[in-house]
UniProtKB/TrEMBL annotation:
Single Gene Ontology MF annotation: mannan endo-1,4-beta-mannosidase activity
Name the record gives this protein: mannan endo-1,4-beta-mannosidase
Lineage: Bacteria, Pseudomonadati, Ignavibacteriota, Ignavibacteria, Ignavibacteriales
Pfam families: GH5_mannosidase (PF26410)
Residue ranges of domain Glycoside hydrolase family in the record: 26-437
Enzyme class: hydrolase
InterPro entries with a match to the protein in the record: GH, Glyco_hydro_5, MAN-like
PANTHER family according to UniProt: GLYCOSIDE HYDROLASE FAMILY 5 DOMAIN-CONTAINING PROTEIN, PTHR31451
Reaction catalysis annotation: Random hydrolysis of (1->4)-beta-D-mannosidic linkages in mannans, galactomannans and glucomannans
Length: 445
């Protein structure tokens, strides 16, 4: 691993030195508990467009015209931050994303990497920033479980197998932190991505200010139950060492975990603090999933929404306290809510979602104005022009992307361009957050 780190530094010193036109103020930076861009505060309203590189590819199933239209529309809404995927691994688990960026260790889909180049180049034109996650704790894009299997672990787990299930899968995925061979493959991939040269801009990724942050993975957690608590020290060590490895390749960009917050830390303040206190982690993250955590039932809104909102406010405020303890900024980078009655079709009512988004946006803006360490939000997820190809709302290879990962009903948490009431709420909040910073809105010619 030491040889790999030295090699990565060699690449930086000799492959790109003197080429970049950017200086440190061109990158989003952390100043105390806030972000700064070009000497001004950076507050943002963002979304999850994890499938951006899939739209950006030029070959089969790409849709660059849709991507450009949607980036224009998002910028007009005032959205300046997109959380995107740079990693997917060909999975042994049904319902996972296809095709994958990496079909086996070191075998890359150049069409999808070209799509990532294109996405970042188009975002740069609109002065938008990318938070880029580099793997996944969950199965839907391959992730840790696939790396474990690639390393030769024959006791792999399928969460859809009723004899195994999700608890066993979570602890199998968390074995990744101590799997040296799996992490060797993972670090090779990180090196591949961060030292990649964007064919559309001519810049290496490590020198591209369009990228705000590298994220170790989507929702890494120590595991579940007692096994998770016993694995916590391995979790902290992996976070610190992986972030240090990224820093050795790329001194320009921020680094964060992608963790869900207390919901991904066995509801332990101690685990959350220890997971984010590494000097190699620049800011903290948290997610908020009312349906997934059993708070909210879209088929019983009247009875479940009031307590959902109360729990969400408490959860938000708990993370403000934890971020203050860390003395680092924090972002709410995933939150969503189903359509009323858990419909999936565009055009069906979203009254509960609108109330929920309004409350979280109000809480975010008021907290930011009061000096809290909250920097911004990324709602889940942007569906845009997408629409399920089938009446069963099950995603299959080649179907349009709607923002919902392939194992979930397409439309479950999607915010479509036809959701005018939700978009008005998002736009109003974005204007408020942008006024706190200095990001200019994009005006289409």
């Amino acid at each position: 691993m030491k040889k790999l780190t030295l090699f990565s530094v060699f690449l930086i010193l000799f492959s790109g030195c003197g080429v970049s036109l950017f200086n440190k103020t061109d990158f989003v930076r952390v100043i105390d508990t806030h972000f700064e861009y070009k000497g001004e505060p950076y507050y943002f309203t963002g979304t999850n467009l994890w499938y951006g590189c899939y739209l950006g590819r030029s070959g089969e199933q790409g849709d660059r015209e849709r991507l450009k239209r949607e980036l224009d529309y998002l910028k007009e809404l005032g959205i300046t931050n997109l959380r995107v995927l740079a990693a997917s691994e060909k999975s042994y688990i049904r319902g996972s994303l296809e095709p994958a960026i990496q079909s086996e260790p070191g075998n890359y889909n150049e069409d999808l990497l070209d799509g990532l180049d294109y996405l970042l180049s188009e975002m740069r034109k609109r002065e938008m920033f990318a938070v880029v996650f580099l793997s996944n704790y969950w199965e839907w894009s391959g992730g840790f479980a696939v790396y474990n299997r690639w390393s030769g672990d024959s006791n792999y787990v399928d969460p859809h197998n009723p004899e195994q299930g999700w608890t066993e899968f979570m602890n199998y995925s968390a074995k990744f932190y101590t799997n040296e061979k799996a992490n060797e493959y993972y670090r090779n991939f990180i090196l591949k991505i961060i030292t990649r040269k964007n064919k559309y801009t001519g810049d290496y990724y490590y020198e591209d200010p369009t990228i705000m942050a590298w994220q170790l993975a989507n929702e890494p957690r120590p595991g579940w139950g007692e096994k998770g608590f016993r694995n916590a020290q391995n979790f902290y060590k992996w976070i610190d060492e992986t972030a240090a490895f990224i820093r050795s390749i790329d001194p320009n960009h921020l680094i964060t975990t992608g963790n869900e917050g207390l919901g991904g830390c066995l509801n332990s303040d101690t685990i959350f603090i220890n997971a984010h206190k590494s000097p190699n982690i620049d800011y903290a993250t948290f997610h908020l999933w009312a349906k997934n955590w059993g708070w909210f039932d879209a088929k019983n809104i009247e009875e479940t929404y009031p307590s959902t909102e109360s729990k969400a406010v408490d959860y938000f405020n708990e993370h403000m306290k934890l971020a203050r303890q860390l003395n680092k900024p924090i972002t709410l980078e995933e939150f969503g809510m189903p359509r009323d009655n858990e419909e999936y079709k565009p055009g069906t009512p979203v009254t509960a979602r609108d109330r929920y988004f309004s409350k979280l946006f109000e809480l975010t803006a008021d907290s930011a104005k009061a000096g809290a360490p909250i920097a911004g939000t990324n709602f889940w997820a942007w569906g845009g022009e997408g629409k399920s190809a089938d009446d069963d709302y099950i995603w299959e290879k080649g179907d349009p992307f709607t923002g919902d990962p392939p194992q979930e009903p397409q439309g479950l948490n999607s915010v479509y361009m036809s959701d005018k009431s939700t978009l008005e709420i998002i736009s109003g909040h974005a204007a408020e957050m942008n006024r706190l910073g200095k990001i200019k809105l994009f005006v289409r010619n």
